[in-house]
Amino acid sequence: MINKENIIGLVDIYLRQFPREKDTTKLFSGFLARNAANELFTRKNFDGHITTSAFIVDHAHTEILLLRHKSLNRWLQPGGHVEGDDTLLLSALREANEETGIPKVEMKNIPILSNSEVPFDIDSHYIPANPKKQEDGHYHHDLRYLFEYTGDGNIIFNTDESTGLKWVKLHELADDETFGAVVKKIRNLEKKSVDRVL
To answer: What pLDDT shows up at residue 68?
Structure first.
């Protein structure tokens, strides 16, 4: 079960793996310090709330799957709110399944450490106010996990959530403001895997 102490522990492990990200995760650390355990995932907590998402790469790890988000009208990785999931990893996997239609058995988690619950990336980003949903502007503190797609390429995405789906070459996103740092992380992870084999 997800609890606040568990999340703080995962962030500590994450920062030991990525010490240069201490400054970029300050917003999330401050949010964790200010909010009680029962407020961390609540959509009506406009100080912010925790979300999860999934970066899905192809078998060769040269492409990443993106969806055209319906309400934000941007190409993004699948993800969303935590909804009673047992773990943050399972939340990311459920969101990926719901939004892409890819069966869970066709998404293999690529852990950054032996503890697969440690996220691949942590990102805090501002979500503008949405008067239709009666939501003030707030932050999503997104814990992101990396998966390899092992299916046959027959993907039918959820049209309630997205207006399009595409595979994008990682090298095309290397200088992208949204995905550049993620591409660098994926490449570094690949390099470490090769180094371990050698």
So the answer is: 96
